[in-house]
Design brief:
The chain contains seven helices and two strands, in the order αααααββαα. The protein has helices at residues 13-16, 20-30, 33-45, 50-57, 61-73, 93-119, 125-128; strands at 77-82, 85-90. A hairpin with a 2-residue loop joins strand 1 (77-82) and strand 2 (85-90).
Length: 137
Amino acid sequence: MAARLPTGSARPAAAAEGSDGFVGEVFSALADPTRRAVLRAVAERGQASATDLGAAVGVTRQAVAKHLDQLAAAGLVADDRQGRERLWRVTPAPMATAADWLAANGAAWDARLARLAALAPTPDASTANGRAGGRTG
């Protein structure tokens, strides 16, 4: 499990810059559907406590706290202490870094697939119907 960030902190911007490992942490954090629901609930509220998020998502406060810890380890959320309460907020930079990674890698794969498609033989009438060699049955 990733190390927990101190209260009130977010992952330093330098860690977010172009690191495949960092992007992997973001995707790993987003892989869980409950974690995505928690992140969405934080984003919709601006900031919220684990108790409020648990009620919104339909899981216990303890479960939400564990999900928030993993989201924080990926830099996706940060908390601010207000008295005894920790209020969580979204930190958008890691999501933007992951989106940039997807765009760059998606473009590279689009180019690779286009080259592959150019090399593939085009189907003729006898194979277009799923029949090889014109055989009918």
